[in-house]
Amino acid sequence: MAAQRALILASLVAGATGFGVLPSLKGSQLRSAVGPLADDAAGGASEPQYYQGARVGPPPDLPSLLLHNRIVYIGMPLVPAVTELIVAQLLYLNYEDARKPITLYINSPGTMTPDGRSAGFETEAFAIADTMNYIRPPIHTIAVGQAFGAAAMLLAQGKKGHRSALPNATIMLHQPRSRARGQASDIAIMAREVLSNRRITCELMATATGKTTEQVMADASRTRYLSPDEAIEYGLIDNVLQPKDKKARPSFLDSLMIGD
Which of 102, 153, 199, 226 is the most buried (most CB within 10 A)? Predict the structure, then answer.
């Protein structure tokens, strides 16, 4: 058998260059001989591992494990790559089970970088917000660290009564920033788009908080930081999660033997 494998491997190499053919073997003989070679060619890849039906690979694929427990995490500015992933995860969870809630953790500066520079467009946040309102499962939002600008708007889009923040999270309201460059006519067009995005953002927040659009626009006309308690008073969230309110332990943590 070893000699047959060596001959087949030599024939495959020769065949790739236009010379030689495989030796005449029966189907079962060919499969038994080529099988180990195919495994070697694949780098000895092992079978995928599964935890409660979720496919994971070494090292543990934490985003997949979180998704398996209906947890979505936004931990970056809202740029196109982030929006694509979040929207895809929400749609997947919607078709997987339209009744079970989804927990959305938010730790994002919105459409800005941490140093205040513009990183994306408000339309990225609108795509996520529209998807949140489109799918059927209730979405429980939790602010972790920071929820600035458009991220604060997403925080408020969660199901009322299930919008939360951890004790030291910070929520911030501010206006969209323009990155317009070029001719005066182009700058004017972009300025109108920025004003339109600002109004849409404030309308979404007004609907979520029970305030008027004009009041939200006035409050967001200058940068405004809110503590979790102030965010409750404003209507952006409903409660502050304390250690005693810890969520149920995801089942996959027991498989990984991770302690509390």
Answer: 153
